[in-house]
């Protein structure tokens, strides 16, 4: 008994700072103390948080409105002491326009020819119309735990544009489909406001989280040109996000990401390790971020009113889930893929080493069930 305890203590001691904090925030019983988690929704109240300068002339108010965004001058953008190039924009979306992005993420982006985790173990015909096969059942769910999961609830990731190969950790010319035009436009606006005009949205990863999901420690380095930022858009439930250093074991800073929040990792922060140890409910009294859309949207707006019956399904879904979209430019302007870029060895299987789902609630959980990429588990 004594020996076992000591061994546990040594193992604990030998763990690096990032893994320790990841486990700390992932813990269910007892729940962790969240008081060190930076909340950008509280503005400059944290001494490490400062106001970030944006390029106010990067896009017109009309263009911003057309993408469902407030004018840039009204964005609350922050930097974080010690993380040059990191910009956190606290929900720049117009009231109601998040509805569009949530609906696209659940209804449209999972459609073929985009690629999702369900494709790995299911025939193409079965993973078509994920929304249609799931919507009615989600609408009628009573909330009982025993109800079988719909395909939409089994969705873990969707890739867009250059489809990320989870096995080889590469993008390639032969795995490419058109990147969604609306998300590309939104990304271009955000990148321009942050000092990166000319950003091209070439690859995207959508991650779908439930209350027990987490995303392991990683760095996004597969893009061939790292001088462009990595953009992140979050919707639905909140998350604890850990932003680490250039080395995997460097101690991270914890922050909340709420619905509508946009994060930009650029410059010296582009290649920092990061992870999502925990999904959390939005704070009480958090302003309803997903209300009805404002009326006077421009005619050519990307963001249109979501039909009520669709929104009903999305509401049910995001009551207990979070969707995050990361958008990346892969190539330098004019750059092409070389054969060498595609020949790295296989290291991860189907994204399963990143995407984890907890099955137990205690501090010493049973071996983790990897986030399933199969539809039949
Ligand atoms: O869900 C998030 O906030 C992070 C997602 C992420 O790191 C990724 O897709 O590479
Ligand atoms: Fe990432």
Count of DSSP strands: 15
Secondary-structure element order, N to C: HHEHEEHEHHEHEEEEEEEHEEE
- The figure for the number of domains is 1
Strand content: 15-25%
Q: What strand order characterises the main sheet?
A: 1-2-3-11-8-13-6-5-4
What is the name of the CATH class? Mainly Beta
Helix content: 10-25%
3D shape? globular
Biased composition (Basic and acidic residues): 354-366
Binding site for Fe cation: 218, 220, 274
Domain Fe2OG dioxygenase: 200-331
Keywords: Dioxygenase, DNA damage, DNA repair, Iron, Lyase, Metal-binding, Multifunctional enzyme, Nucleus, Oxidoreductase, RNA repair, Transcription, Transcription regulation, Translation regulation
What does this protein structure show overall?
This protein has one domain: Alpha-ketoglutarate-dependent dioxygenase AlkB-like (Jelly Rolls, Sandwich). The chain contains 8 helices and 15 strands. The chain has helices at residues 2-14, 17-26, 61-66, 98-108, 130-139, 151-154, 181-193, 308-318; strands at residues 49-51, 76-80, 86-90, 115-116, 157-161, 203-210, 213-218, 230-236, 238-243, 253-257, 262-265, 274-280, 321-328, 355-357, 369-370. It has a 9-stranded antiparallel beta sheet, with helices on one face. The protein starts with a helix and ends in a 7-residue tail after the last strand. The model is unreliable at 341-349 and 359-377 (pLDDT under 50). 2-oxoglutaric acid binds at residues 205, 207, 215, 220, 232, 234, 239, 241, 257, 274, 276, 324, 326. 2-oxoglutaric acid (AKG) is lined by residues 205, 207, 215, 220, 232, 234, 239, 241, 257, 274, 276, 324, 326.
């Amino acid at each position: 008994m004594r020996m076992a305890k000591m061994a546990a203590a040594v193992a604990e001691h030998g763990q690096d700072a990032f893994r320790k904090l990841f486990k700390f925030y992932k813990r269910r019983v007892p729940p962790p103390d969240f008081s060190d988690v930076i909340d950008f929704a509280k503005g400059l109240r944290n001494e490490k948080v400062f106001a970030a300068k944006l390029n106010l002339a990067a896009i017109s108010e009309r263009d911003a409105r057309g993408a469902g965004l407030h004018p840039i001058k009204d964005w609350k953008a922050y930097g974080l002491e010690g993380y040059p190039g990191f910009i956190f924009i606290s929900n720049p979306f117009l009231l109601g326009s998040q509805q569009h992005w949530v609906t696209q993420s659940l209804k449209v982006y999972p459609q073929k020819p985009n690629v999702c985790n369900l494709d790995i173990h299911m025939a193409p015909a079965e993973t078509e119309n994920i929304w249609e096969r799931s919507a009615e059942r989600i609408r009628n769910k009573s909330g009982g735990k025993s109800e079988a999961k719909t395909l939409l609830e089994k969705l873990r990731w969707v890739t867009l544009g250059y489809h990320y190969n989870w096995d080889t950790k590469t993008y390639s010319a032969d795995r490419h489909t058109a990147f969604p035009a609306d998300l590309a436009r939104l990304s271009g606006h955000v990148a321009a406001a942050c000092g990166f005009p000319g950003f091209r949205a070439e690859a995207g990863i959508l991650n779908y989280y439930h209350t027990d999901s987490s995303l392991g420690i990683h760095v996004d380095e597969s893009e061939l040109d790292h001088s462009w930022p990595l953009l992140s858009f979050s919707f639905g439930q909140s998350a604890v996000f850990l932003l680490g250093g250039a080395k995997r074991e460097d101690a991270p800073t914890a922050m909340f990401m709420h619905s509508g929040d946009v994060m930009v990792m650029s410059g010296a922060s582009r290649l920092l390790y990061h992870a999502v140890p925990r999904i959390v409910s939005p704070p009480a009294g958090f302003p309803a971020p997903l209300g009805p859309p404002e009326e006077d949207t421009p005619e050519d707006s990307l963001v249109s009113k979501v039909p009520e019956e669709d929104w009903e399904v999305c509401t049910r879904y995001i009551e207990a889930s979070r969707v995050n979209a990361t958008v990346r430019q892969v190539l330098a302007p004019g750059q092409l893929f070389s054969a060498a870029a595609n020949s790295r060895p296989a290291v991860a299987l189907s994204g399963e080493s990143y995407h984890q789902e907890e099955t137990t609630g205690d501090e010493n959980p049973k071996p983790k069930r990897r986030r399933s990429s199969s539809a039949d588990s």
